[in-house]
Amino acid sequence: MSKGVLVDATKCIGCRACQVACKQWNELPAEETSNTGTYENPPLMSAYTFTKINFTEVEYNGKFHWVFNKLQCMHCEHPACVEACIVGALEKRPDGPVTYDDRKCIGCRYCQTACPFGIPNFEWDKAVPWIRKCTFCADRQGGSLKPACVTTCPTGALEFGDHDELIAEAKRRILTAPNNKYYNHIYGEKEVGGTSWLYLSPVPFDMLGFPTVGTKAVTVNAERAMSLVPWVLVGVAAVMTGTYWLTKRRQRIRELENSEKEKTGVTK
Amino acid sequence: MIEQKRRFPWGISILTTLVILGLIPMIIRYINGLGYISNLSDGRPWGFWISFDLYCGVALAAGGFTLAGWIYLFNREKYHEVARPAVLTAFLGYTLVILALLVDLGQPWYIWHAIIYWNIHSPLFEVAICVMTYTAVLALEFSPAVFEALSKSNLPIFRWFNWHIPLRLIRTLQIPLVIAGVVLSTLHQSSLGSMLLMMPETLNTLWYSPVLPICFLISAIAVGPAMVIFESTLSTKVFGHKLPIDVLSGLGRAIPYILGIYLALKLGDLIVRGDIGLVFTEYPQNMLWWGEIIIGVILPIILLSMPSIRENRGRIFWSASLVVLGLIFNRFNVSMLALAMRTGYTYFPHWMEIAISVGLVADAMLVIWLSYRLLPMVHEEEHKVEEAAGVSA
Asked: What is the torsion angle, in degrees rounded to the nearest 10, for the CA atoms of residue B198, residue B201, residue B202 and residue B203?
C-alpha cells in the first residue's frame, strides 16, 4: 500500500521542529543566513535543507490568516524527475518515496528543470556535487519508522499513513469542521496526477505560493513522444533507403536511355 | 623581400587567446565546483551552456545531415562541394556539445553512466545515445578526407600503411552511414523538443505544445542549408575558395518551403489549442515570440523567395544569417527565457560561463582553419582532375 503524509496547515504552529529533525536525521549542515524580516528561515530550500516551513500572512474571506505550510518533495505518483533522469538514478517506489541513487547520477540537473514543484537541489559549492532532496525517509520507513519530521511534529499537523486513507481523512476533516475552517480542496489529491504528500489549508493554495498545476501528470506528452521513437527510427530508415533506391534507379535508367540514344545516333 | 614576409596571423592569435581564456575558468570549475564560475542556481539549473552549446549547437550542426541526405540519398550532385565542410562543421559542432557537457555536468567523469544505466523513458537518454552515435557517424563520414590526406603525405611515418584500404571500406559504407546520420538526427533533433515536453507547468504556453518535437526537427532542417550558406560565405572570405552562386541560391531556394511548413505548424498548433490570442495578450513573452518568428521565419521566407536576393552573394548571406539568428533566438526562448524560474531566483550568465562557450567555439574554428590548410576539403574536383590525368596518361 502506498504511503503518504497529510499536512494540515490549520494545525501547524510554525515551530519548525520538522526542519531540525530533518537536518538531524539526514545529517545536513546548518546554513548561514541573514534576517529577512520573517520567522521563515532559511529563505530558500537547498541541497542542505530538504524541508522548510513557509510563513504567509494573507487576508481571506475578510479574515486575517497567518498560515504555516511545510514544503518538501511532494513524492508525485508520476514524477517528472524519475521520467527525466537520464540514468534512472531517481526511482518512484511502490510504497511512495521518490528516492535518489547517487552511484548512478551524472549531475545533468534535468530533474531540477523538470520538477513542477522545484524540489531537487544541487550542491553548487562542491567540486564533486550531487543532487539532494527529501527522501520521504525511505530508510526509516524500511525499518517501520515514520519520517523524522512526522515523528517530531508536536501538534499532529503531519499525519503519516496509507495514501488512500489519508485522502478519506482529509475529506472527513473538511466536511466535519466548522464553516470556513478549511478551504475546500485537498492539494495533491489530483495535482499532476496525484502526490504522496497531501495538504489542507484554511486559504486557497495559490495564496500560499503553491504552484497552480493541472491534474494531468506532467509526463504524459513526453511519454507519448518517447513511445513513438522506435516507429520513427524504423520509418525514417525505410523512407531514406527507399529514396536512395529510387533516385539511383532513376539515374541508371537515365544513363541507359542516354547511351541508347548515343548508339542510335551513331548508327544513323 | 618585404612583400614576401608573412602577415601577422591576427585571426589565429585572437582565436588562441580565446581558447586560453576559456580554459582558465574550466580549471577553476574542476577545483571549486560549478557555483564558483557560474551564476547557475537551483532556480535556474540549466543556463547559458545548455541553451547555447546544447540547444543551439545541435541545431546549428544540422547542416551535416540535411546536406548529406540531400546529396547522397536524393542524389543532388550539384551540392557535392559543400558536403565535406558541412560534415566537418557538424562533427565539430557535436564535439563542442560533448565538451560543453563535460563542463556543465556535475559529474562529468561519470558521463559513461549514460551507456550502462539506461532510462529508456528519458528524452535526454535518447539525446545522449543519438549524439554519441551520431558523432561517431560524422567522424566516419568525414574520415575519407583524413585518409586521402594521409595517403598523399610524404612523411615516412604515414608511408608504411596503405591508407586506401580504410578509404575503400568507408566508401562502401558511405550510404548506410548517411542513412544512419539522417535517422539519428531526426531522432535527437526532435528529442531535444521532447525534453521540454516534461515542463508543461514551467514552459510558457506560447511554446509548450505536444508538437514541440516536430517544430524542433523542422526548424533544424531549415537551418541546415542556412548554416551552410553562412559558413561557406565566411570561409570564402578567409580561404578564398568560391562556391558557384548557383549552389548558394539552390540552397537558399529550399529554405522558404521548410520555414513555411514550420510557420504553418506553429500557427496551426496555436489555433488548434485555442491559444492564438496569446500572441497579442501574453506580454512580455509574446515579444520574444514575435522576435523569433519575424527574424527567423517571416523575413527569411520573404527575402529568400526573391531571386534578386538569392542570386547575390552578399544578400543571400545576410538572409541566411537571419535564419541562423532566429533559430538561436528560438532555442534561447524555449530553454531559458520562456522557461519560468523558481521563485526567489534571478539569472544572468556569469562572464566565465560565456568565456567557456566562446573558447569552445574558438577551438572549433581553429580546427576548421587547420582542416582547410591540411585536408582536401573540396575533394571531388581534385579527384576528377587526377582521374582524368590518370586516364590520359
From this structure: 70
Terminal Cα-to-Cα distance of chain B (whole angstroms): 39
Say yes or no: A253 contacts chain B, CB-CB below 8 A.
no
E strand map for chain B: none
- Residue A36, chain B, CB below 8 Å: the answer is no
CB count, 10 Å around CB of B287? Answer: 9
Residues of B in contact with A218 (CB under 8 A): 198-201
* Chain A contacts in chain B segment 209-268 (CB below 8 A): 210, 213
* Nearest residue to B363 via CA among B63, B26, B122: B26
Please tell me which of the candidates A86, A124, A192 has its beta carbon nearest to residue B114: A86
Element (H, E) at A76: none
Instruction: Search chain A and give the residue with CA nearest B178.
Output: A240
Three cell numbers at A228?
A: 513513438
Quickly tell me which residue has 557538424 as its cell: B90
Chain B CB within 8 Å of residue A78 CB: no
pTM over 0.80: yes
What is the reported pLDDT for B390?
A: 41
Residue in chain B nearest A234 by alpha carbon: B183
User: Which stretch of DSSP H or E encloses residue B151?
Assistant: helix B123-152
Least confident of A35-44, A108-117, B59-68, B371-380: B371-380
> Dihedral, CA atoms, B181, B187, B189, B190, nearest 10 degrees?
160
Helix (H) or strand (E) holding B161: none
> Minimal Cα–Cα distance from B49 to chain A, Å?
12
The backbone torsions φ and ψ at residue B59, rounded to the nearest 5 degrees and listed phi first, read: -65, -40
**Percentage, residues of chain A above pLDDT 90:** 91
- Decide if A221 and B210 are in contact by the 8 Å CB cutoff: yes
B39 touches chain A (CB under 8 A): no
Label residue A178 by pLDDT band (50, 70, 90): confident
Q: What is the largest CA-CA distance in chain B?
A: 77
Contact indicator for A33, A42 with CB cutoff of 8 Å: yes
Q: How far is A159 from chain B (nearest CA, A)?
A: 28
Environment class of residue B313 by beta-carbon count within 10 Å: exposed (0-12), middle (13-18) or buried (19+)? middle
Let me know: does A71 contact A54? Beta carbons within 8 Å.
yes
In sequence order, which residues have a C-beta less than 8 Å from that of residue B374 and are 6 or more positions away? B149
pLDDT at B176 over 50: yes
Distance CA A139, CA A147 (A): 9
Residues 6 or more apart in contact with residue A117 via CB below 8 angstroms: A73, A74, A211
Displacement of CA B97 from its chain's centroid (Å): 9
Q: Which helix (H) or strand (E) holds A99?
A: strand A98-100
DSSP string covering B323-374 = HHHHHHHHHHIIIIITBPPPTT------HHHHHHHHHHHHHHHHHHHHHHHH
Q: Do A129 and B179 touch (CB under 8 A)?
A: no
What one-letter code names the amino acid at A128? V
CB proximity B21 to A under 8 Å: no
Contact assignment for B201 to A211 by CB distance below 8 Å = yes
In whole angstroms, what is the distance from residue B285 CA to residue B282 CA? Answer: 6
Q: Flag if A84 and B198 touch (Cβ within 8 Å).
A: yes
